[in-house]
Amino acid sequence: MVSARRLTALVLAAVLISGCAPAAPLDPGASEPSSTAAPTAGVPWFAPRPGLSLDLVPGTHEVVRSDEVHRIFARWFAVPGHPEVERAQQAAVDASIDAFRGAPESAGHGGGTAPRELSIESELTGSSAEMLGIRSTTTTISGDATSKEYRTQWFDLNTGRMLETRELFADAQRWARFRDLVDIELLGLPEAGEKDVVAADSLQLLSLNFDASGDALVEFGEHVVAPGAVGDVVVKVPSTAVSALLGNLGKQAREAGMRPTGLPASKSRPLEPVDGSGTGSHVGDPDPGEVAEPDCRKVKCVALTFDDGPGPKTGQLLDVLKQAEALATFFVVGPNAQMRPKTLVRMLEEGHEIGNHTWHHRVLTSLAPEDMAREIGSTARAVKDATGVAPTLMRPPYGATNAKVKAVVDVPLILWDVDTLDWKVRNARQVVANAVRDTKPGSIVLMHDIHSSTIEAVPAILRKLGAQGFHFVTVSQLLASVGLTDGAVYARGPAPAKTPAKKPAKALTKS
Ligand code: NI
Questions:
Q1: What pTM was computed for the model?
Q2: How many domains, the chain?
Q3: Separation of 78 CA from ligand 1 center, angstroms?
Q4: Residue 506 domain flag
Q5: In whole angstroms, what is the distance from residue 177 CA to residue 182 CA?
Q6: Distance from the CA of 278 to the center of ligand 1, in angstroms?
Q7: What domain range includes position 356?
Q8: What sign does the dihedral 200-206-207-209 (CA atoms) show?
Q9: Cβ(272)–Cβ(343) below 8 Å
């Protein structure tokens, strides 16, 4: 069966322009999807083409789920007026998280539990009044094994339905023909023999996108269609071949990918309120830089830190901080920084500090040095593009660091000594209780400004710690008297020496 079909495929191959199946990095732990597009600023090396700007779909915002203990980070989109879009993505994320949690822990080489991590990133790949395409990359790491899965969900906005890939094709025959064309390209993979390649007709082709020329791009994660050494595979089926096979919905999807247009959302609202959440102009506000900085060796200081944002409610958090005259530090992830440049500008204007929390929120210790450098460099660039200033601090995702990471990171690494567990409890009262109970002079407090419950908790945290005499400072202010060294790790700052101190204040943790 297969070989007969393949024979046909091979004959057909002679009359087709060969597509593109680029080689991927050989180190499976370090591989990123191959790129068939020329690198552009932003997210060049992760996608067959860079994700589209979310500005095309007014009001769209990201939803982030994180689990600091199980090392899960998932990011998807909510589109106003189209709840089905978020629902379908969330269902896919839930399924991946369930599968990840349900998988047996594998033993590491040393006998201990092997490192595990799940990362799900989404991006917009097609947009029009009729059709929306959202592509997600799911990376699972278990011990030495890394696997990637690609999935593109196409949404018919007129009916609110998510389409299976086959529904983009005119009929069963044309769908079969398309899979034959994909097979031809797979057979042409330079690194794999025919026997190694899985026939595409046994696969669902979960990720189909269209580039600016209208060519179809079908993505496969490592090991899905070819041996691991081949890496991720992107198959291109030329525009002329695919356009004859698509049905009406498929043509709409192709158009949305080829020539993306904005979605006229009735409930349109700006992604970034012009001024955070609208407290008016900052003009005339005192410049925080002119206010004398507290000396954290003499007074009680605490550095509140917010990771993984900026999120949809970060503007509201900035309002709260401003009212309390409190400063904070934001460790931002690249995609969110790119989405909310004005929020970043406002942070700096109001005296806060911005740190780097990488692009994909991956466990850096399991990446090759060049991938680590890209994770950090791309986010630094996004912050600099938005504000003119590159971050001078970095927080490794999950606090995971080792000598390799320290060697690559060229700024100080900031951990924490107070974990509010806000990502887990999702309850403002509990977050307040944890923060207030554990904060000591010199503490660095870990929170996440992507959760509403955390934003709700901050006023009470400021009130209660403020009543105890704490000054709310940025991480750099907290550590100013110690001096920060690039590549060194800090988890807390100095505390004022108390005369009857039970434990002498330890200046800082540095390793
Ligand atoms: Ni984080």
A1: 0.76
A2: 3
A3: 20
A4: no
A5: 9
A6: 27
A7: 291-490
A8: positive
A9: yes
